[in-house]
Amino acid sequence: IGSYRFKEIILNGNSLILFFKRALRRTLQILFEYPDIQLRSRVAEALNNEMDYDLLISIAVPHPIHWGVAKVWKGGTNIARTWVADCGDPFMFARLDTFRKPFYFKHFEKQFCRRCDYITVPIEGAVNAYYPEFRGKIKVIPQGFNINGVKIKRSVIKHYKPTFAYSGGFIQGKRDPRPFLDYLSKLNEEFKFIIYTNQENLINGYKTILGDKLEIRNYIPREELLEQLAGMDFLINFDNNTIEQLPSKLIDYAIVKKPVLNIARHTDLSVIKDFLAGDYSKRMNLADLNKYDIEIVAQQFLGLAP
Question: Which of 6, 132, 225, 271 could join 35 in a cystine, given CB atoms 3.0 to 4.6 angstroms apart?
Fold first, then answer.
């Protein structure tokens, strides 16, 4: 179901055409949830032929999947006896987007919240990112990972200079690496900072400033990434600066069992000097991995069935 999409606006052409394509796609995304809005009809069409299940779990993002279920849901008598709407990230009250969602989308959010039996969110802090009248339906169920299926070679790698890494995306002004990179640019200490990202445009200028101290790499398969992260001295997390959303990368960081330096809006960046010296006493406290075990998580979802 999730594979159905509007025809994408392909970002190609000369600089002027590319500029207008980017602007058009961003405008359509903000105003109409382009291209994911078509999922509402596609999901509804697919579910018209389904019935008599005990449990239906719809998964967002994208949220139009929930909207599609709500379009055809008649409440415990047609498709399934229980509907669980799983929300990895909030929608109307999302704090990480540059723009707030237009007010008219609250109709779709309230419709699916009203019709589903349960709303599941991955962390307790996310509960307040939903309309108050529906918070009684919310259950906290963490993200599930096949913890036992991850095999990492625990070979010890000795670096001739402190080597650390970050993997993931950036959000300008929120999950923003630039203050940290500015601070690194002023240090005389030797180090190697490796960033795995597809958003090089935000940090490319720092490659010129930091030279060999900064290495920017493209995304690689998760299994390969975990091996790479396990070979670092420590890892960096750029905080979302909100309690509603927690980066899923922290689960991967916990798997590789490396010290994590969390960089939040008000972090005293001089702490990096301690980490470069091998003092990890101010490392981030990560959650117990067992709570993310896919078998435990699956049982929590099944426990919501009638």
Answer: 6
